[in-house]
Each structure stands twice: as C-alpha cells, then as structure tokens.
C-alpha cells in the first residue's frame, strides 16, 4: 500500500528498503522512484474523484474511479472505498463481498 506524502512524510524504497522522505530518487541506492511517486499521485487523484462523484450522486463514476484506484493500489482502504461506491450504487452483494475482503 502506498502511503500518502501528506499523511506520512516517509517512503520505504522498494529496492533497498531505505526509509526516506518522498523523493523521485532513493537516497541510498539511487533507484528511480518517480513512477512510484506518479502512481501514488494517481491513487490520490482517483480517491478524490471517487469521493467527489459520491458527493454529487454520480455513483457509476464513483465505482469506476474506485476500480481504477484499486488497480493501482489494491489496499484495504481502496477496496473499502470501492465497497462504499458499490453500496451507494445499489450493488449491495458486491459491496458486502468487497467489505469482507472477498
Ligand atoms: Zn533504495
């Protein structure tokens, strides 16, 4: 799971495991972390889009944004977001399956 830079100023390099502040390059092994950073920004953008769609009653759009979010990061938080979107869309069985981790 990605941790948002705003909520956690630390990143653990997936190559060497070095903990560091968010950067496009690992301070220890010099791995390029820009794609990881880009993916994180995509997850955050999609989460905001999902929540905005839910607020506006655009439930199909909310589900699509949540699905795309889960493709980038299938964390429990994002699966729960998708479950909530499915619930509001009226797909209760799908919402329950997602909430139960199935
Ligand atoms: Zn590294």
Description:
The chain contains four helices and two strands; from the N terminus they run ββαααα. The protein has helices at residues 34-56, 59-72, 76-89, 92-99; strands spanning 10-12, 19-21. It is mainly α and 102 residues long. The protein has one domain. Helix 1 runs antiparallel to helix 2 and helix 3 (76-89) packs antiparallel against helix 4 (92-99). The mean pLDDT is 90. Helix content is 58%, strand content 6%. The radius of gyration is 16 Å and the shape is elongated. 21% of the residues are buried. A hairpin with a 6-residue loop joins strand 1 (10-12) and strand 2. It has a two-stranded antiparallel ribbon with strand order 1-2. It binds zinc ion. Residues 13, 15-16, 18, 26, 28-29, 31 line the site of zinc ion (ZN).
Could you give a quick summary of the protein structure above?
The chain has 102 residues and is mainly α.
């Amino acid at each position: 799971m990605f941790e948002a830079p705003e909520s956690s100023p630390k990143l653990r390099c997936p190559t060497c495991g070095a903990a560091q502040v968010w950067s496009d390059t690992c301070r220890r092994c010099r791995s390029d972390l820009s794609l990881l950073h880009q993916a994180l920004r995509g997850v955050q953008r999609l989460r905001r889009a999902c929540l905005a769609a839910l607020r506006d009653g655009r439930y199909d759009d909310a589900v699509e944004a949540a699905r795309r979010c889960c493709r980038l990061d299938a964390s429990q938080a994002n699966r729960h977001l998708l479950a909530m979107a499915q619930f509001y869309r009226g797909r209760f069985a799908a919402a329950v399956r997602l909430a139960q981790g199935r």
